[in-house]
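**User:** You know discrete backbone vocabularies at least as well as I do. Would you mind producing a protein record, from residues through to fold? Write it directly below this note and I will take it from there.

**Assistant:**
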Amino acid sequence: MKSWIVSICLGVILACMQIPVKAQSNSHSSVDTNNHAHASGSSFPVKLDVIVDEIRDISIGNANFDIVAETLLTWTLPNLAGRVLTPKTITGSAVDETLADTWDPGVFIANALQPRTIVARSLTIYPDGSLELYEKFSALISIDSAMPTYPFGEVDLHLEFQSVNHPLPEFVFVPRKFELGHHGNPDEVAKGNWSFHDRRAEVLENSSLSHGGESRFSVAVLHLALAHDFIDIAQKIFMPLLSVMLLSLAINKYMVIYETESGGDNGNWRVGGQLTLLLTLFALKFSLGDEIPATHYITMIDALFLAVSLLVVLALIWGMYVIHAFQSGRIEVAQRLEQKSNIIFVLLAIGLLSWVSTFLI
């Protein structure tokens, strides 16, 4: 009888010892599930709002631009529900401390050439457990888009926001708002001779060496389609290049190389004029370095420079050979070359311009 009573007492004591252990285990499991989406296998959405305040110093030659923008990341942690009775905004170093204690999204700009400069930052906690991380920043962003028809067509300026702390599905971007400026006038955002044509957002996946190199991370890509002002390009590039081409044709036609009535010779003017135009092309190419994209393929601007340069070089060589023919006594050959040069170089100019126009297709 006593042994039976002792057995019951021991069983009750052991059962009481097991209850706190199970309760503690369940408590840790609940926190982990709330703070890490992968515990249940479902995605953890993080809403992204972006307002672009300013885009300036767009350098096609250096393939970069400066941007000032504001971002708002919003996510919900159910275990923080009721932590505050009214919305509470935190600033300064307390933002990092709160994120470290709860859940830090850890977002960076993947196509930035250097770390972004944060102008303002705050974290707001709401009674329902949702958090909003606000940032206003400036950054130097690279330009990586195809521009075969430049200066015609559009240039794709884009921002790539990528998660670094949490791989998929622990962190999934959900773009919610993407605006240009606060006053509804997007053309005031881009400084310089640029105008906005379109904007769009997309969410991609990207691999990283972080987390062992096998995880994939969510990436929000915000595209800004801009077009260059044609008047500005016409004044800086098209008019000077076409003027050089027309002057080269005029020198070739009117600076004829033969004895004039006064006994003079236009050969020096012929060679000197073409050589001056060639040096002008080199100087123009150097001065427009920031206006011409540095690509591994030929753009329309490159094709136009090549066409005009080829015309001037051939006209210079042609004129030098005609002078040589006159000086060596082959007067008839030199005169025939001089007469044919007009039609030949006009047709060459038309052919070269036709080739340049193919880059618009």
About this structure: The chain is about 40% helix and 30% strand. The first helix runs from residue 2 to 35. The two ends are 102 Å apart (CA to CA).
